[in-house]
Amino acid sequence: MKGYTRPITLILLILLIDQISKFWVKLNMTIGQDFNILGNKFLIHFIENPGMAYGMEFGGEYGKLFLSIFRIIAVIGIGYGLHYMIKNKYHRGFTLTVAMIFAGALGNIIDCVFYGMIFSESDFYTKAVLFPEGGGYAPFLHGKVVDMLYFPLIEGNFPTWFPIWGDEHFLFFRPVFNVADSAISIGVALILLFQKRYFKEEQKVKENVNSEMLED
């Protein structure tokens, strides 16, 4: 278990925060409901995402099934990669960032796989119920991802002289996301930011492995 403690602890912590926040929102808010945290700049805004990031989705029931299966395969691949990196003593920061990505992907998979079975449907007037009589709102692998973090930091209109979008309304930052999405985004950003340090260490690991093989 040497080397696994910190990544596993980080994964469990992210999953715990992600799922607690989603359960609370699902059971205490209706679709579209807001709670202001920092004025109008940070809100808890409940929506459900039936597909991929930014609300994109494949068509029909089979499209949703394909997306859920694809997510499961992807997270298995990330998990195997994380195991390989820990086993071969990759840079600790690199393994922790990959652990963040793994936890985020797994957090959203939990929604897709189980939420349709354990929750009733949320709508604009009714809060969801956990383990409702008669079953949940969707079958296995057809659940919706719960999103709630909303940061509409800047809102206004483009100047009339602005190309293409002149005088049109704009909002930054528009997407609504969750803790799992945040973990994925932060993990990817850290890899891009520190890639030279991470991959320099990775090269040293490969050189050490090759040296050990030659000695044997």
What tags apply to this protein structure?
single chain, two-stranded antiparallel sheet, 4-stranded antiparallel sheet, globular, 216 residues, alpha+beta
Straight-line distance between termini: 26 Å
Q: Give me the strand/helix succession.
A: HEEHHEEEEHH
Secondary-structure-based class equals: alpha+beta
How does the overall form come out from the CA principal axes? globular
Largest beta-sheet characterization: 4 strands, antiparallel
Number of helices: 5
The number of strands is: 6
- The side-by-side strand order for the widest beta sheet comes to 1-2-3-6
Can you characterise this structure?
- This protein has 5 helices and 6 strands.
- It has 216 residues and is an alpha+beta fold.
- α1 runs parallel beside α3, α2 runs antiparallel to α3 and α3 runs antiparallel to α4.
Task: Please write out the topology.
Elements: H1 5-28, E1 34-38, E2 42-49, H2 60-87, H3 92-118, E3 145-150, E4 154-157, E5 169-172, E6 176-177, H4 179-193, H5 195-215
Antiparallel strand pairs: 1-2, 2-3, 3-6, 4-5
Helix pairs in contact: 1-3, 2-3, 3-4
Summary of the model, kept short:
The chain is of the alpha+beta class.
